[in-house]
Write a structure and sequence with these properties.
heterotrimer, A mainly alpha (368), B alpha/beta (269), C mainly alpha (306), A: 368 residues, mainly alpha, two-stranded antiparallel sheet, 2 strands, 2% strand, globular, B: 269 residues, alpha/beta, Rossmann fold, 10 strands
């Protein structure tokens, strides 16, 4: 690292409370977001890169961040992530499908709110039940979501196959967009979906960062570390827990809506099954509990590993040699092993590894 | 210094946590057979780490003794497990009591005898003996440990250690969170166990007044170093100890004038 | 008298008996939780592992008892390896980390089991007849017959004896006592000289054996295939209702969930306009019980001090 915090004079409270206190950090981040993510990548990346790599990684990263808010920051174990994503996805679809004037940004926001409300409902037992007993509630949410969208085909507009394709006219991002080049077809293309995902993801990261460094986040962490002690110093545990569940499931709901609209392009409740909940949980563990950066690192690794293995296999043995079953079993074994090894060696996950290596780079090569 | 091998001799040890954080650098302590030794120091000075280095519980917290040796009855213990240590007669009473909350008081005591493979008659005898030493917990034998008061928990923890028939008890901050009267009671029991049952004690304490009253020798540890050693009498009469640990001996001492020990070189014992 | 009563009773009894099958899974859970505070999510996969090993031998004409003993030894070894490589390095970590480690272990074993064996469906025949017998002919007062299959009775007997044995073990033996001590406080247990690793090795080995028994019974019931791992999801609400630390709770919870599931399926599914409510219904039942008793019916109350 070529710059550091030491010796910076901060003259105002506002400057002290900046999200990125170092000028260099602000510069690099802005450069990365504007030039790389919005500029070069949007311009150059192929359909495959957009829809098989970047979009799913961001979407899953947001879901992971959502779970991290409940589990990593507030210490409430949740196994219902995919269920809440499911609520979000169906809410977004029904809002857009049934209300002609609905726009995607508003629909995603409302989808998040609806998922958040479900989160509050299923989070209510957390006021009385603690620890492992709480997984009953979140699993109930998971199975309830899977069941309700199966049992009531109204939510799917009575599509007999159980899968709804999302047509281009659903992708209304701003008024009168047909008159501009950024019309339905553009937003329906992978590049447009990438831009939607990217913008929402950045907004959610900034919001989360601000929540965790303000009193909201401090209350979450106080409740996580010891809830009666938090209660004694005047934090309302009930309010804090419900708030955490609401925000957590809001993120999951938005992630679910993006999963349908931006990633797979159709609506299918079978996708949001318990396995997906666990996958998101692995991302949290691998990335690091209570870390925003970790959420995305975890999502990138757990989602990316099977792709990497397949590509490597194709490169070494020629196309299509490795069958999917092998890749799947391999990634299960690898991810399982990595989870265990990380928990033993570095319970902070990839995020902690990143921080220690940054720390080491600062003094390298003068010390190790 | 006596020619007899001390029951415990810690020679200039260094302790690292997670291979990076240095907690002790140069601690040497000797406990003679049948002696009560007190280890005084503020929070974070390294008292608990010293005790855990002896009982081998350090490893469970990712700590290790990186330099120096610890000998128990003249035998190096670096290769021993916590289990071996208890087996050979060194038991630590953990700071903050660490009672098994969901076990009854009696069950708590019984866990202490696990190590000895004793038959039920001798376990019964030991139980009666522990109850005779710790009268207060006898009436609460059927209560859950977690619901006992702090003083009772401390007694359960000590009784549990006694069930293992130790030669040396590492007593870590027995006074934590207890009323002065109770602290007195606890130390009276320590004295009885020491005098009548011949158990040696290494007591780590912040309450220098009481610890030096019952101990024979004392060590003062600061920032991971032993900075002062002496008989209890010497220490309790030393002005600087009085100022720092006993709430003022000489009159009108301003804290800015007090000598800080860590400015001295660490003393080699 | 209510006309639907005989039918109701039949459903109830059927439910109670299927609950026994859930208890079988739950016992292994409770054993590990009670002795080490680990919420072992890999239970279902261990069950599958045992059943698959056994089946892969019997399908190659290996004698029943030989296959059984080999699987038994393998499960014991597996338990010890898990203790060595996963649990021991994680001693003194938070319960959440331990839980997550078992989730990772679950994922690992899933990949391994499917990699070593295929994912086809196999059958197990334990030779216990499934024929119904009359438990009570002409039940007094109501004048009904109560019919139960022999298999269910055998499963209930096995589960019952396992639970009895374990309860006695925990309450009255020295090892049982130290197991309970370990689950309360790892550090204190080490300080009084309880050899953590040896104790855990025993527990994981015993759990391996329980998994084998449960795996075989489940395998006979529903066939051995990947879906067997779902057994863990059936076991979860059971232990949560019964209380994570209570062995009798495992059986009571099993009975409650079994009965409520079957009754719900018959009487409530219509209200909800579709079938398949049993998945979330079991969890809702558990939730209702937990709202009344937050640590399960027989679970230890949490002792909290600041």
């Amino acid at each position: 690292m070529y710059y550091r915090e030491a010796g910076r004079l901060v003259k105002s409270f506002a400057a002290d409370r900046r999200m990125l206190p170092l000028m260099e950090d602000r510069f690099v981040t802005t450069l990365f977001v504007v030039v790389v993510m919005y500029g070069l990548v949007t311009w150059l990346a192929s359909d495959y890169i957009f829809s098989a790599i970047l979009i799913p990684m961001m979407v899953l990263g947001v879901a992971t961040l959502g779970l991290n808010i409940a589990t990593g920051y507030t210490g409430q174990l949740s196994l219902g992530t995919a269920g809440f994503m499911c609520f979000g996805a169906f809410a977004a679809f029904n809002l857009i499908f049934r209300l002609d004037w609905m726009y995607i940004p508003l629909a995603f926001f409302l989808a998040g709110l609806i998922a958040g409300l479900m989160g509050i409902i299923f989070g209510l037992p957390a006021l009385r039940i603690k620890g492992f007993y709480l997984i009953v509630s979140t699993l109930a949410a998971q199975f309830f979501a899977e069941w309700v969208f199966n049992a009531y085909p109204w939510f799917l507009n009575y599509t007999s196959s159980g899968v709804v394709n999302l047509p281009p006219f659903h992708y209304k991002v701003f008024p009168f967009q047909e008159l501009t080049p950024l019309n339905d077809a553009f937003w329906h293309s992978s590049r447009g979906r990438y831009l939607i995902t990217l913008t929402i993801t950045i907004a959610l990261i900034v919001a989360c960062k601000n929540m965790v460094r303000s009193s909201t986040g401090r209350n979450w962490m106080a409740v996580r570390d010891m809830d009666i002690a938090a209660n004694v110093i005047g934090i309302s545990v009930a309010k804090t827990k419900l708030m955490a569940f609401f925000v957590s499931t809001f993120y999951c709901g938005v992630a679910g809506a993006m999963y349908s609209y931006c990633y797979i392009g159709n609506l299918d409740f079978m996708i949001f099954n318990l396995r997906r909940s666990f996958l998101v949980m692995f991302m949290v563990i691998v990335g690091g509990l209570g870390s925003i950066l970790g959420s995305f690192l975890g999502a990138i690794f757990v989602y990316g590993w099977p792709i990497l293995v397949t590509r490597l296999g194709d490169a070494i043995f020629g196309g299509g040699t490795l069958d999917t079953a092998f890749v799947e079993n391999n990634s299960k074994i690898v991810v399982g092993t990595i989870i265990i090894v990380l928990l033993i060696r570095e319970p902070g996950g990839f995020a902690a590894l990143w921080n220690t290596s940054k720390q080491k780079l600062r003094v390298w090569p003068f010390s190790k | 210094m006596s020619t007899e091998t001390p029951i415990l001799s810690i020679k200039n040890i260094e302790v690292l946590y997670s291979r990076v954080i240095s907690a002790l650098h140069g601690v040497s302590i000797e406990v003679q057979k049948g002696e009560i030794v007190s280890l005084l120091g503020a929070n974070g000075s390294g008292k608990t780490t010293t005790c855990k280095a002896v009982s081998r519980l350090l490893e469970a917290e990712r700590g290790e003794v990186s330099k120096g040796t610890i000998e128990y009855n003249g035998v190096d213990i670096s290769a021993m497990s916590p289990y071996d240590m208890v087996k050979t007669g060194v038991v630590q009473v953990l700071e903050g009591r660490h009672i098994f909350g969901h076990l009854t008081v009696e069950e708590n005591l019984l866990t202490g005898s696990f190590i000895r493979n004793a038959d039920s008659a001798s376990v019964k005898r030991d139980l009666d003996y522990v109850y005779s030493r710790f009268n207060r917990i006898k009436d609460r034998r059927k209560n859950l440990g977690g619901l006992c008061s702090g003083g009772e928990q401390q007694m359960v923890a000590m009784g549990r250690a006694m069930m293992a028939k130790p030669n040396l008890i590492l007593l870590d901050e027995p006074s934590m969170g207890l009323a002065p009267q109770l602290i007195e009671e606890i130390f009276e029991i320590v004295k009885t166990l020491n005098e009548e049952d011949g158990v040696s004690f290494l007591v780590s304490e912040q309450n220098a007044n009481i610890a030096l009253k019952y101990a024979k020798t004392g060590y003062i540890i600061e920032n991971g170093r032993v900075v002062l050693k002496g008989s209890a009498k010497e220490l309790s009469e030393s002005d600087s100890v009085k100022d720092m640990y006993m709430g003022g001996g000489a009159e009108d001492v301003s804290f800015s004038d007090v000598k800080y020990y860590h400015r001295r070189k660490p003393c080699m014992v | 008298m209510w006309e639907g009563l005989p039918f109701f009773l039949e459903v109830l009894v059927g439910g109670l008996l299927s609950g026994v099958m859930y208890s079988l899974v739950a016992i292994g859970f409770v054993l590990i939780y009670k002795s080490s505070g680990v919420f072992n999510f890999a239970q279902g996969t261990m069950l599958l592992f045992a059943a698959l090993t056994f089946v892969s031998m019997t399908e190659r004409q290996v004698n029943f008892w030989v296959a059984f003993s080999i699987t038994l030894v393998m499960m014991v070894i597996m338990g010890i390896i898990i203790e060595r490589t996963v649990m021991r390095p994680l001693a003194n970590q938070s319960l959440l980390s331990l839980f997550m480690a078992t989730v990772g272990l679950n994922y690992f074993l899933e990949g391994l089991a499917q990699g070593v064996w295929d994912s086809a469906v196999h059958g197990v025949d334990l030779g216990i007849s499934n024929d119904p017998i009359f438990l009570i002919e002409k039940f007094p007062i109501l004048g009904l017959d109560i019919i139960i299959s022999q298999f269910d009775i055998a499963a209930a007997l096995i589960a019952g004896s396992m639970i009895l044995g374990l309860t006695l073990f925990f309450q009255y033996t020295r090892t049982g006592l130290s197991l309970r001590a370990v689950s309360d406080d790892h550090m204190a247990a080490m300080a009084v000289g309880i050899p953590l690793s040896r104790i855990w090795a025993i527990v994981w080995a015993v759990t391996g054996v329980i998994c084998l028994i449960a795996g075989l019974l489940w395998g006979d019931r529903v066939s051995v295939s990947f879906t067997l791992t779902a057994a863990v999801l059936k076991g979860l609400p059971v232990i949560l209702i019964g209380g994570l630390t209570s062995i009798p709770g495992a059986i009571v919870g099993g009975l409650i969930i079994g009965a409520s599931e079957k009754l719900g399926e018959i009487y409530l599914a219509e209200i909800f306009g579709g079938q398949g409510i049993e998945h979330w219904w079991a969890y809702t039942t558990a939730l209702i019980f937990l709202m009344i008793r937050p640590t399960g019916i027989f679970g230890e109350k949490e002792i909290e001090r600041v």
